[in-house]
Amino acid sequence: MLKIKIDKESNTPLYLQLYRKLKEKIVDELSADTKLPPIRKLSDMLGINPATVVKAYDMLAQDNLIYKKVGSGSFVAPAAVSAGFKEDKNDSMLNHGQIKLDKSINFASATPSTDLFPVDDFKYAINHVLDRDQGEAFTYQKSQGFLPLRKYIQDYLKSKSIYNNLKEIQIVSGAQQAIDIIAKILLDYGDKVVVEKATYFGALQAFASRKAEIKSIEIKRDGLDLDELEDYLKKNKIKLFFTMQNFQNPTGVNWSREKQQHLLELAEKYNFFIVEDDLLSDLYYTENAPSILKQLDKNERVIYIKSFSKVFMPGLRLALIVLPQKLLPEMLETKYATDISSAGLTQRAFDYYLREGFFEKHISLKRNLFKKRFEVMSEEIDKKLPEEIESFIKPEGGLYFWLKLPQGKDSSKLYEQAAEKGVVFSPGYLFTASSAKSEYFRLSFAAVDEKEIKKGMDILSEVVRDYLGSSDEDDFSPLL
Ligand SMILES: Cc1ncc(COP(=O)(O)O)c(C=O)c1O
C-alpha cells in the first residue's frame, strides 16, 4: 500500500503535491509495471477530489512515468525505472558518492531542497523571454555573456560597492566552472596554490586537475592565520590563494576587515592573485551584510566569483567572474574552449528575473527562512549535543555549523554510526586535500526544515553520546 501524505494547508496545489509525491515513489521505490491505486480509492484515502488524482496521473503519464491500460488502471512505466532518475537525484556535488542520502535526515547537503526553488516566477521569466527573443534565445551567445545581463550585473555590483569596468565581467556556467577556468588560466604543473585549511572540495579538485601543489593554512575565527601565510610566502612563490571570505565553507568564518586589508597587502608584496568565491554573502542573519574583499581591491588582485545558482537554483548553472583586465584575453579563450558560452535561454531568463526584482525578493525570503532554521539548529546544538562537542564559531549567516569532536576521535566513524540511524552529515575529511582522519564535521540546515532539524538532532545526540562512550580501538594499528 502506498503511503502518501498531502498537506492541505500548504500553498502548493494538491494535484502538484500528489504528482511530486507519486513521482518520488515511482523513482525511488516502485518497480516497473507496478499498479497504482485506482483513482477513487486514492482520492478516498487522501480525502481529496478524484479530479485532483486524475490531474496528477495525467501529469505522470505526460512525463512517461506511468502508462494507462484501458479498463485496468495506471502502471509504472519501465522507462521511469531505466531512465536513471534515481541516480540523478543523488548525484550532488557534495555527495561524490560518499554520502548516503536515501531516506536520511540530510545535514550533509548545503543545497536547498527543491521545494524552495522559485519555479513559478522563473517559468514566467522563461515564457516572457521566449515570446520576446524567439529563436535568439536558442542560438550561440557571446562567450563573455548576454550583454544586458552583464550590464545589469555591473549596476548590481555597484550597489554592493564593487566597482568595475563592464569588460571585466564574465558570465560562466556556475562557480565551479569559474574556479576551473581560473585554474586553467593560472596554473601549470607544480605551481603552488594556497587554500584555507578546510575548504570547498570542488576547488581542491580543480587545482589538483592542473597538478598544482596545494598548501593548506590554518583558519582562525576572524580569517586566515596570516603570519603562517607570510612565513610560507617568504619561501615559496604562489600563483593564487583561494578563499571564501564570508560564511566560509565549511567553517562559517567571516574575515575581519583588518585581515582583508592585510591579505591584499600580502598579495601586492608577494605578487599573487586572490580568488574570492562569494557563495553566501547574501545569507547574513545580522543587520548588515558582511564585507566583501573585492570592495577593497584597488590593484586588481582579486578575481571575484559570485554564484547566482547555488542557493537560488543550482541547476541553472549561472555565475559571474569579475576579473583583472590583464587576464581578459586568456579568460575569453578559455571560456570559449570550455563550452563556447553559457546557455542563452538561462542567461536571458535570469536577466529578466533580476530586472523584475524577483531575485532580490527571493533572496530576502530565503534569508528569513534560513535564519529561522539557523536559530533552531543553533539552539538544538547547544541543548542536545554533549559539552565535549565544540563549535568552531557561532556563524552570523550561511548554511552550516562546523563542530569538533574531542581529540583523537574520528568524524568518519561518527558518520557511519549516524548514517545507520538515518542521519547524515559531512565528515571533515571531505574538506581537505588528504583523506586523513578529522575530528571536525559540518552540519548543514539547507535541505531540512525545522521539524527535521529537531528530529535529526535527537538522533544525532544519541549517536554522539554512544560514540564518545566507546573506545576507538581499531585506531591502534600494530607496527609491523
Ligand atoms: C564554496 C563553493 N563554491 C562553489 C560551489 C559551486 O557552485 P555552483 O553551483 O555555482 O557551481 C559550491 C557548491 O557547493 C561551493 O560550496
Could you tell me the CATH topology label of the largest domain.
Answer: Aspartate Aminotransferase, domain 2
Task: Give the distinct bound molecules.
Answer: pyridoxal-5'-phosphate
Q: So what's the CATH class of the largest domain?
A: Alpha Beta
The CATH H-level superfamily of the largest domain is Type I PLP-dependent aspartate aminotransferase-like (Major domain)
Strand order of the largest sheet: 4-12-11-10-9-5-6
How would you characterize the overall build of this protein?
With 480 residues, this protein is α/β, with parallel strands linked by helices. The protein has 3 domains: 63 residues, Orthogonal Bundle (Arc Repressor Mutant, subunit A); 135 residues, Alpha-Beta Complex (Aspartate Aminotransferase, domain 1), CATH 3.90.1150; 238 residues, Type I PLP-dependent aspartate aminotransferase-like (Major domain) (Aspartate Aminotransferase, domain 2), CATH 3.40.640.10. Helix content is 41%, strand content 13%. The strands form 5 sheets. A 7-stranded mixed sheet has the order 4-12-11-10-9-5-6, with helices on both faces. A 4-stranded antiparallel sheet has the order 13-14-17-16, with helices on one face. Strand 5, helix 9 and strand 6 form a beta-alpha-beta unit. Helix 2 packs across helix 3. The longest helix has 27 residues. The chain is globular, with a radius of gyration of 24 Å. The C terminus is likely disordered.
